[in-house]
Amino acid sequence: MKNILIIMTMLNFCSNIYGQQTYGIKLNGGISNISITTTNGQNLKQTMYPQPSYNGGIYYSYSVSNKFKLGIELLFNRINGKQYTGIPLTDNNNNPTGLYSSDTIWRHISYLGIPIYLSYNYKRLNLNFGIQTNLRIAGNAREIGSVPSNGDILRWDNKFTNLSEIDKIDFGIRGGVIFDVYKNLGIDGNYYFGLNNNYKGSITSNWKMKNRQFTIGIRYKLLTINRKKKEK
């Protein structure tokens, strides 16, 4: 958080030199995917399903020239994912039976998202690219599964609020497009590509978990301040 405050101070200093500051709010909705991969050697059937997702919060930008801006946002960011895993069953001689256990997990993770980006303006279009840090603040999961056993089927339905196996910090790159529709109103689209493995501890030796998110929505300028460049 200390680094964020330093960045905000630098942005404000530069804006006093070059000119325009913009403050606003935004709200986006879309889809997210929590990608789970493994190298444990099992012949698993795995499918990841995109789930509804959203984020919203405040943004601040300043102009470093007529074409370029630097921006930072503070967002409540909800990442959701659905994972299906089928595990092949074997008999007493370790031969495949052709049957699978079935396990489906829904994950819902809430983050405080902090994107920092450089943007390029062309008429009413703005293209931006940068980095994003997500700080986990809450989360929960639900697991539903079944397995054949001696002619019967064993079932389970578990809920989890302790996500201690998931790292508190998620980090990745983010690209976006903004189109000014009318005066202070704009359309905002973003894609986030997580880079780090969100699993932590011993589980990271065989499993990797990464976040993906695509959202589109609106942003509204609350305040624009223009300053003339100081003369030497």
Structural write-up:
By secondary structure, this protein is mainly beta. The chain has a single domain (2-225), classed as Porin (Beta Barrel). It has one helix spanning 2-18; strands at 21-38, 45-63, 68-90, 96-122, 125-149, 152-160, 169-182, 185-194, 207-225. It is elongated. The model has no long low-confidence stretch (mean pLDDT 88).
Describe the SSE topology.
Elements: H1 2-18, E1 21-38, E2 45-63, E3 68-90, E4 96-122, E5 125-149, E6 152-160, E7 169-182, E8 185-194, E9 207-225
Antiparallel strand pairs: 1-2, 1-9, 2-3, 3-4, 4-5, 5-6, 5-7, 7-8, 8-9
Distance between the termini: 35 Å
Largest sheet strand order: 1-2-3-4-5-7-8-9
* Residues in helix, %: under 10%
Q: Provide the low-confidence segments as ranges.
A: none
Helix-strand string: HEEEEEEEEE
- Overall domain count: 1
CATH class group: Mainly Beta
What would you call the shape? elongated
What is the CA-atom radius of gyration, in angstroms?
23 Å
Tally of strands = 9
Sheet having the most strands: 8 strands, antiparallel, barrel
Mean pLDDT: 88
CATH topology: Porin
What attributes characterize this protein structure?
mainly beta; 7% helix; Porin
Quick gist of this model?
This protein has 232 residues and is mostly beta strands.
